[in-house]
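Predict structure. Chain length: 321.
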Amino acid sequence: MLVRSATFLAVVCFAAGSAEEGSEFGGVAAEGVCTSCAPPSLAEDVGLLQLTTRGPQEKVGSAPCTGLKGDPYASGHHVFCCSGLQQCLGNWLGTGAKSYLCYQTCPGSPAPAPAPGPAPAPAPGPMPVGAHFTVPFFWQNVHWQCSVAARGSSGSCKEKMSQRFVQLAHEAKAQVVTSIELSNGMSQPVDLVALGLKGWKQVNGPCAKGGGGDSAALAFAPGWVVEKSGGGCLRTDYDTRAFAVARVAPPSPVQGCSSLCVLAVHAPHTSIDNGKGIVSSVCGDVVGSCAIAMGDWNTPVDGVGRLWADLIGGAAPHLLF
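Prediction complete.
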């Protein structure tokens, strides 16, 4: 599940994975598009809340494109609108949530002015502040049994799932990834950089609790700058879970945010009573308007706002259905 603060859209998606141990994973973009999700289910921990309109896709020469009234994200990856069409954001499903379809002219917008005569193409330059910048995310919870070869998981489960995590992150072209419970022992996250995310910056959130514990980790692709980071436990009792947090500067501003507060969350089954001070210290003033959190929230959708307030504060995040 990925959610974000008041100025951001959000997506929640889960899927079942590992043959040896149930695994939850998901991929989203910061504009609210799932890039790696399974069909929806009504189970508490398996819910896809991004409903897309499956529209037509065509081919121009050898390159695929999305046709009129088609969903450019229907394939799980972004497929540009065909020539003469543009990507339009609107409430196409009538649910109040916005998504993209391809139209010649976006409904409700004024007719375009006549095209001017040809002009020399401008030289490419840096993306201007406030320009649209899509950020693909990927996260996965392999569950602790896989990491420590317990309750039927084989001794090779952690190695296999570590390799699979890196493979899926590359396939999703993710810029930010989160691993939950993929650890050495119970609380030390595995080294994702050493596993194949070369040049990435990793932020660990170990949560040691007696002989047990929990783990969460973030990693950011080359071009992202980690300005400050932290992590730890979300409770101090038996139900504790881990989180990691980083204040980062993306390669280009995301919806006006030159710095983002990004969190990897493995929420307790009860409530969060620890960690808010760390988040505030790491993220400072960006926590209220430029926060993105992803991971395993262990709650139905209507419980996310409560957990968000316990850890991040401010208004409940927007969810995209």
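Summary: The longest strand covers residues 201-209.
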